[in-house]
């Protein structure tokens, strides 16, 4: 078999392995998935009227805030899901299975490739579930064209790929699963200080650069523009740049850690 064929075959095997793990141990996926759903319901039904009055035209309109909130929560869902990836990779690195894989005639990068593809698929499935909850409570995107929906799906997939590679590196550098979960917490924390819940220009002046110059805010503004028809500006190019940079950083970081000789 050629090197490419071997890599594809072994990566497919590792993908099936990781999907089986996710099916057999659903509690981790459910725990990280519940966070964005609970936040969605909390901000809509508890804070919705107040928040909508603050970002809208002055009147309380919960449906307006649902439309504003859902795109940010979809991207936060991706960040939450990748925590499970960091924990899974850390378990593999510390429980001895990687040492066993190193002695087998398999393509070396197929192990982490299987983790990445499996995590991206789980992230997209989680986004669909959270999106369905959003639609059930009133989110509508009636003005988006088929091309804009396709672009939104592409952005979500690219963002999931970027955060997954970062999560894989975090899992490899962590000494245990608990540390991996803690190291990946910024992937949930960053959306909380982005434009997911309130506009950046409504934040204190000293805090606005923190919210603006991070990967989640341009991605949220781009997704919001695609689904709701709001102004995107240069947020789209910035979001793509962040995704490509994080993907490259995570890939080379993870590859270097995986190829490092075990101590």
Q: How would you sum up this structure, described in words?
A:
The model has no long low-confidence stretch (mean pLDDT 83). Helices cover 76% and strands 0% of the residues. It has helices spanning 3-24, 26-45, 48-55, 62-94, 97-102, 110-136, 146-173, 177-183, 186-192, 208-212, 216-228, 235-259. It is mainly α and 263 residues long.
Could you list some keywords that capture this structure?
single chain; 263 residues; mainly alpha; 12 helices; 0% strand
Mean pLDDT: 83
Low-confidence stretches: none
Q: Which structural class matches the secondary elements?
A: mainly alpha
Measured by DSSP, the beta-strand proportion falls in under 5%
Please outline what is shown here.
With 263 residues, this protein is mainly alpha-helical. The protein contains 12 helices and no strands. It starts with a helix and ends with a helix.
Give me the secondary-structure topology.
Layout: H1 3-24, H2 26-45, H3 48-55, H4 62-94, H5 97-102, H6 110-136, H7 146-173, H8 177-183, H9 186-192, H10 208-212, H11 216-228, H12 235-259
Helix pairs in contact: 1-6, 2-4, 2-6, 3-4, 4-6, 4-7, 4-8, 4-9, 4-11, 6-7, 7-8, 7-11, 7-12, 11-12
